[in-house]
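User: Some background: our group keeps a shared notebook of sequences we're curious about, and every so often someone picks one and asks for a predicted structure to add to the entry. Today it's my turn. The entry only has the sequence so far, pasted here. Could you supply the structure so I can complete it?
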Amino acid sequence: MLMQTHEARLKALREELKRRGLTGFIVPISDEHMSEYVGDYAQRLQWLTGFGGSAGFAAVTLTDAAIFVDGRYTVQVRDQVDEKLFAYRSIPGDSLGDWLTEVCEDGAKIAYDPWLHTWAWVEALEEKVEPAGIAMVPAKGNPIDAVWSDQPAPSDAAAMVHTEELAGRPSAEKRAEIADWLGENRLDALVVPALDSVAWLLNIRGADVSHTPVALSYAIVHQDGRAELFIEPGKITPDVAKHLGNAVTVRDRSEFETALAGEFAGKKVSVDPDFGVVGIAQALRSGGAQFSFRRDPTILAKAIKNPAEIAGHRDAQARDGAAVSRFLRWLEETAPSGTVDELSAAAKLLEFRKAHGDLRDTSFDTISAAAGHAALPHYRVDEDSNITIPPGSIYLVDSGGQYPAGTTDITRTVWIDTQEGAEPSAEMKDRYTRVLKGHIQIDRAVFPQGTCGGQIDAFARQYLWEAGVDYAHGTGHGVGSFLGVHEGPQRIAKPGGGQAGTAQELHAGMICSNEPGYYKPECYGIRIENLVLTVEREIAGSEGRYLGFDCLTFVPIDRRLIDKALLTQGEIDWLDDYHTRVRDILMPQLEGEDRAWVERQTAPL
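Assistant: Of course. Here's the predicted structure to add to the notebook entry:
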């Protein structure tokens, strides 16, 4: 019998915990690879609670339950999760360890799935709760899986070859570099659990996870350059088998744990601390391996794009820019009638992307946000939250596409006119222009080799700070090549505060987003986002190596929201030059009214 209510599901989980002699269980949004986006089979938190956000976790005991989310999801969690079942807790202010010590008695056994958490996470929680007599216990089989009777099966989609023309380098060359790294560090093997790292290393892609073209798999690379790919055998087509060659052994994914436990006795094995879950470490330890936590060397190598990947990105961005521009023209003409809502706008944008060909998926759920919804930086529209885009308001759309040549991510904030004609408020123009000024400063930034993202974040915020305002998200994240839209290790954000990647040195070839914003609660939100490529800058007389950014995204920026008086002549010149490049890239792809619209939107300021 299917459990239709979250109350019934919570009750069933508690009964399962009682049967196992456990006091509680931790439920994250995670899979065995610590992926950002997970397959339907791994959506355990949503099944249990109804929460559909991309970050958060729940803790359930026999008597209490709470759901923990950050400030991005304060509104969403209250809309989707029943407060009678789950208390709302906000992170980082509220600690899971503190909550457990409040609701649990001495002797409590709190279980966690060792395949859904990292070693560092478990250690930190144990340090917090063990003084209160609470034991953290690795579960043998996930308790939710035991009661989720109609749990979807993992995707059975076939893996695909990512051609060398697009990848830029053969897999054998990448594996040889890993072998050299293993030799230099006196290691015998590297475990690669991150799905995008496996995909990059072996030049394969898949369709097992929404928004990220990866195949559910693990890889182990040995010191001689051989590799083992653990994947469901049915995913390997003859083309993929031929592509992998004799140096890559294909093994059933179900053999992975037993291989770790039985084949590495006395060997030195490296596991990435951010993607290597407790289950991997436990299996290696049980088999007598000497494992250590080190950053997976594929992560930095994957972030530094080669010439073929850069060329592919430029192609994907040009294709995507034409689709987004066609959508913005349609929106400008249609939305003033009051007949367009957030969902229909997102659907129309997808329609334009598909029409340009080669789109494989969106790179994340489109943020189609009108009026006060735009003030929620990570708003996700659904049937319940959907509203008509009000004429005479600001509309924000953050979206992206997955194309074989590259991954895109763009945000545009536009003014929705009325049929009678209406002007944005002076405050809207002020805030929009300050965001644009910060965006320009990141785009024009020049910095010495060795600079990290945390050091340049303030470039984007300075003009907002002058007005006594700020934004609560990072300024930039890395982007993959037909892989994850949020790719580490680099990040442009305020240093500290748990912002992973802000201390990572920026290298030529890295792609980052440039997306400052401003959000007035319940009123409107503003964000302007382009992707930029880190490149070398030639400076006459420079004493060292300097870097800067080349813009990759070309779509008109709404001039109706700009207060020209706040811009310097240099900033006006930047905008005019940017719009010239928009015309050069988009015009060959557009016809008729679309061309005329871009011509109008990119006229000199």
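Suggested note for the entry: The chain has a mean pLDDT of 95. The radius of gyration is 25 Å.
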